Amino acid sequence: MKRILVTGAGGQIGSWLVPRLRELYGSSKVLATDVRHSGAESEGGPFQVVDATNAKAVGQAVMRHRADTIFHLAAILSAVGERDPRLAWHINMASLESVLEVARQQNCAVFVPSSIGVFGSSSPKEMTPQETVMRPETMYGVTKLAGELLCDYYHRRYGVDTRGLRFPGLVSYGIAPGGGTTDWAVDIFHKAVREGRYTCFLGADTRMDFMYMPDAIRATIEVMEADPTRLVHRNAYNLTAMELTPATLAAEIESRVPGFVMSYEIDPVRQAIADSWPDHVDDRSAREEWGWAPSFDLAAMTVDMLEHLSG
Ligand code: SER
């Protein structure tokens, strides 16, 4: 991993990953790309507008930058995907296909984020295994699962070094997530700091896995740096740091923001998506195959989020 191209650099993950990659590998070595130029992603290094669904444009950018590794982050998330399923299929699959083809032709390694969204109601909810029944019920989940299979195919058939992680909900400050089911766990912090109250679109006891962004960024880099001979489940690893419900996160915030009030107005579409996802995944393969261990628990994440947002 010496020369890197990132798609979706202006998104929630990209806005954290690009600066970290630049710190580790050198600013000029990391080309940030996105379908539009929002400003922040071009700070501190090269940026280019690239539509990741356009294989020719991706191919030219990879060639000019002489990239050997692609972090393909561009995607439509679950709630937006349910509003326009065809668009979600097109963006998520066409971009992945173009990235994989370019990687095959130009000999690049590829990282693709997958998601707890690959699971569905028929998957076991507790300690959801690495390999189990996977019948996702959202278009987002369908594209992420198809994406895992396509990455496996490119690895097996063409030897492309594809690697991925099934991220849980990601909590971060800075750029907000773009329309997912887990966005409440980000929104709640902003509202707590600004207004002292939050109305949650999921029910109080909806359980799901979460992770603080610094851990997600570290996991991304660690899996890409891992010894390839140890990676059995390369596309993609179950991953978690903590299990949350809106009620438990609200209580944690309330203990640090006195007077914080949580109320609930359930959005049936996002509630149905959340209910179809695991309560808690089993991430032992990640721990065993490349040494995954989270460093932020609920308390540490809450303290850090509140500190950054209040500052
Ligand atoms: N956080 C994503 C979403 O809610 C799932 O990976 O869509």
What's the short story on this structure?
This protein is an alpha/beta fold and 311 residues long. 43% of the residues lie in helices and 18% in strands. The protein folds into 2 domains: 4-168 and 213-238, NAD(P)-binding Rossmann-like Domain (Rossmann fold), CATH 3.40.50.720; 169-210 and 242-277 and 297-310, UDP-galactose 4-epimerase, domain 1, CATH 3.90.25.
What is the strand and helix layout of this fold?
Blueprint: E1 4-7, H1 14-25, E2 30-34, E3 47-49, H2 55-65, E4 69-72, H3 78-83, H4 85-106, E5 109-115, E6 126-128, H5 139-158, E7 162-167, E8 169-171, H6 184-195, E9 197-200, E10 208-212, H7 213-225, E11 237-238, E12 242-244, H8 246-254, E13 261-264, H9 268-276, E14 280-281, H10 284-290, H11 298-310
Parallel strand pairs: 1-2, 1-4, 2-3, 4-5, 5-7, 6-14, 7-11, 8-10, 9-13
Antiparallel strand pairs: 10-12
This protein binds serine (SER).
Serine is lined by residues 77-78, 115-117, 140, 167, 169, 180-182.
- C-alpha geometry: globular
Residues in β-strands, percent: 15-25%
Indicate how many domains the architecture comprises.
2
What's the name of the CATH homologous superfamily of the largest domain? NAD(P)-binding Rossmann-like Domain
Spatial strand order of the main sheet:
3-2-1-4-5-7-11
CATH fold annotation of the largest domain: Rossmann fold
What small molecules are bound in this structure? serine
Class based on secondary structure composition and strand pairing: alpha/beta
Count every beta strand, where a strand is a DSSP E run of 2 or more residues.
Answer: 14
CATH architecture term of the largest domain? 3-Layer(aba) Sandwich
Helix % is 40-55%
Radius of gyration: 19 Å
Mean pLDDT comes to: 96
- DSSP helix count? 11
Major beta sheet, specifics?
Answer: 7 strands, parallel
CATH class of the largest domain: Alpha Beta
Outline the low-pLDDT stretches. Answer: none
- The helix/strand series, from N terminus to C terminus, equals EHEEHEHHEEHEEHEEHEEHEHEHH
**Terminal residue distance:** 35 Å
